[in-house]
Design goal:
731 residues; alpha/beta; TIM Barrel; 3 domains; 32 strands
């Protein structure tokens, strides 16, 4: 029997999910989850929820699906210890460090691989199974045939998203929000850059739109197929959605799962009608109706759709002031283009056409003029052309039985003050790392780019394995400007089932040809290369953000780590002690891929450059391997060479991925590095300021309040962490 899994972002949504027949719910607490902006659950609420849900013979899963900074690992340890005592049915995780910590201290906690872990193939799923995972949540960029093949060739439970919001970026690989201001999507603070309003330049002039705003997933018609494949769990997205939304969507999928075998066509029709008021965006089946990369993009992207959810009511056609009972002029508006006429008491959201503002509003009055035109009161500041969406009708007042008891005083479990045992990474013998010499490494995307950098003699070259380089290396067998011992091959972080066999064949061929060093960016890559005479380097997309994740990678026979692009100076230094820093390749220049999309952009997107309202300029690129968005302003810390060397870092990466390299460009960058010169018009990404953190902001505010009371100015101090002498044994 397949499981229906519903979101519970708050207590009301929990009531709705269970009330409408969900078999299981997933929820987050106040830390370590990818929806930090949702209400989430307090300690006593969560403990009570686990007990109450279990009493109803249902399951409850906890999202611990963010990457964790080194400074947070002790708090994570205490959090996991708390969860171990409370006893949820599973943890949905992204960070490899959580695997390592659970293996060492909490073996009874059931682990599920989050979609953020980017599991898209049987090889990746099976590696997670070997590491103790019971279930993987598959990447959302997969089709039915791929899911079927993964199920047939893997030994873990599969969970798939069937309804709700989508990310335009391939699962877990979005850097856009982090690049814009430290609000990392991989740390639960996504600012939804994909939903933003952009201006594009093309040959005919300038256009505007929500170019990367995706429609919402709806797979109600595909549920019977997925049941027949053997998928164990159907997941509804929506931890930031209302209880009304959770209830209506859960009810629809519950109805279909209970009735489709009796009347497939009829039950699908009923379920679709039940979903007609889910108050979300336009719908797509995404890869489930795959025809071509172009049609995928056209079914997914909706450049006219503002980022907020709700039923589209149209745009403001006219406005007029109307005097109210207090003698004040209130703005009223008539709408055009929608299919539903809002009424008094309905809640709406208004979006300015230039995306400069969004306001939610409850309609107080509806007027009908002599021409039978309806007018609704609106907030001040909105005008003709602005969009209006329905959030909730007055009639949506369905009440559910409360899951939690009224009295929570008996639920007192909280994370304690346990000290995390010290973990020392191993120190590989020097000759074992002979393939990893000190100096500058350069990454490129084509063989021709290798020739462009040849004269500067980087100590190693990292060449991406993509459609073009596969032709160069395998089909054409082109002569290369560097020896095979000097070349690392970098694998794409998105590894779907469709290409798995071809990828294995390509890797086998190249290993046999003498390419022995590989930058791996997906669990599937580790699994594939384990049986070959090859050396793996952990790429930036494996997110070794803390020494516990690095330790897990060590246990996969990986000794060298490329620091993630969005890493900060503070976290990099905290993760690796001085004697470990010679194992780390530090990116010092890059045009990082902010969005990575599996599909080609539509033909109507006939532009290369686009900008946001803050003036940031970005570049869109479509290739045979998908589409990419990169910043026009590169990330650079070339001028920090002296600091980096003094700190013990000896290996540096200049990354020209997705960028055509001109002769002389590398020479200029290396000059800046050796002289410590600041390049013009660059971004520091998160290097200087670190990640945006709600916890740090709260600590800062509280400290300031205390300072005001005490009459003292706030001084930041580094608190010394207590440690034990116990060192976990490496497995």
């Amino acid at each position: 029997m397949s499981e229906l899994l519903a979101p519970a972002g708050n207590i009301e949504a929990l009531d709705a999910a269970i009330g409408e027949g969900a078999d299981a719910v997933y929820m987050g607490l106040k830390s370590f989850n990818a929806r930090l902006r949702s209400s989430n659950f307090a300690w006593n609420q969560f403990e009570a929820a686990v007990q109450a849900v279990h009493r109803q013979k249902k399951k409850i899963y906890v999202t611990v699906n963010t990457v964790v900074e080194e400074r947070e690992t002790e708090r994570l340890y205490r959090f996991l210890s708390y969860l171990d005592k409370v006893g949820p049915d599973g943890l949905i995780v992204q960070d490899f460090g959580i695997i390592r910590m659970c293996q060492e201290f909490f073996p009874n906690l059931e682990l599920h691989a989050s979609t953020q872990m980017n599991i898209a193939s049987a090889k990746a799923a099976n590696l997670m199974g070997k590491e103790g995972f019971k279930r993987v949540v598959l990447a959302r960029e997969l089709g039915l045939k791929e899911i079927q093949d993964i199920k047939a060739n893997s030994n873990v439970e599969l969970e798939v998203f069937v309804h709700g919001a989508l990310c335009v970026c391939e699962s877990g690989l979005c850097l856009f929000s982090s690049y814009l201001g430290g609000k990392s999507a991989n740390r639960g603070m996504c600012a939804q850059a994909c939903r933003r309003f952009y201006q594009a330049e093309y040959d005919g002039g300038i256009s505007q739109g929500y170019y990367f705003s995706p429609n919402d997933l709806q797979l109600i018609e595909k549920i019977p197929d997925l049941v027949n494949i053997g998928v164990e769990s159907f997941k509804i997205e929506g931890r930031m959605k209302s209880a009304e939304y959770v209830g209506s969507v859960t009810a629809a999928y519950r109805y279909l799962l209970d009735h489709w075998q009796e009347d497939k066509k009829g039950s699908i029709a009923v379920a679709k009608r039940m979903l007609s008021t889910d108050f979300a965006r336009a719908k797509t089946k995404y890869w489930y109706d795959f025809k071509s990369p172009e049609t995928i993009a056209e079914s997914l992207l909706n450049p006219k759709q503002a980022g907020g959810t709700g039923i589209y009511l149209g745009t403001i056609e006219k406005t007029k002031p109307v005097e109210n009972s207090e003698g004040l002029n209130v703005p009223f508006a008539s709408l055009v283009g929608g299919t539903y006429e809002p009424d008094e008491g309905d809640s709406i959201r208004l979006h300015k056409k230039d995306d400069t503002g969004r306001v939610s509003h409850k309609i107080k009055q509806v007027l009908v003029d002599d021409h039978n035109k309806r007018w609704i009161d609106i907030p001040k500041g909105f005008s003709i052309g602005d969009s209006v969406y329905l959030l909730q009708t007055k009639s949506m007042s369905k009440r559910y039985n409360h899951i939690l008891p009224r009295d929570l005083s008996t639920f007192r479990k909280q994370p304690g003050g346990q000290e995390l045992p010290i973990l020392d990474l191993s120190t590989p013998e020097k000759d074992k790392l002979s393939y990893f010499p000190e100096g500058i490494y350069v990454q490129v995307s084509t063989v021709s780019d290798m020739y462009a950098i040849q004269s500067e003699n980087p100590v190693r070259v990292i060449l991406e394995l993509n459609s073009e380089t596969k032709k160069s290396l395998i089909e054409k067998k082109e002569t290369l400007p560097f020896s095979k011992k000097q070349i690392y091959i970098s694998l794409d972080p998105f590894c779907p089932q469709e290409i798995e066999n071809d990828l294995i064949s390509s890797i086998e061929y190249l290993v046999n040809e003498g390419f022995r060093y590989w930058v791996v960016n997906n669990p599937a890559h580790i699994s594939i290369l384990k049986s070959m005479k090859a050396t793996c380097i952990a790429g930036p997309y494996l997110y070794a953000f803390n020494r516990w994740s690095a330790s897990w990678l060590e246990n996969q026979d990986i000794d060298v780590f490329v620091s993630p692009y969005e890493n900060s100076r503070q976290n990099l230094e905290a993760t690796y002690e001085k004697n470990q820093r010679s194992r780390v390749l530090v990116p010092i220049f890059a045009y990082p891929a902010l969005f990575r999309m599996r599909f080609k952009l539509p033909a109507s997107y006939d532009f290369t450059f686009f900008s946001d309202k803050e003036g940031g300029v970005f570049k869109a690129l479509s290739t045979e391997d998908g589409s990419f968005v990169t910043p026009e302003k590169p990330f650079s810390i070339l001028d920090k060479s002296t600091f980096l060397k003094n700190a013990g870092f000896t290996h540096f990466l200049i990354d020209f991925s997705k960028t055509q390299v001109k002769k002389g460009t590398l020479r200029q960058l290396m000059k800046s590095f050796y002289k410590g010169e600041v390049l013009p018009d660059i971004s520091r990404f998160n290097w200087k300021d670190g990640f945006y953190s709600p916890e740090k902001m709260e600590e800062y505010r509280n400290a300031n309040e205390r300072a005001k009371v005490n009459g003292n100015s706030f001084k930041n101090s580094n608190q010394k962490k207590a440690v034990t002498k116990n060192k976990p044994k490496k497995r």
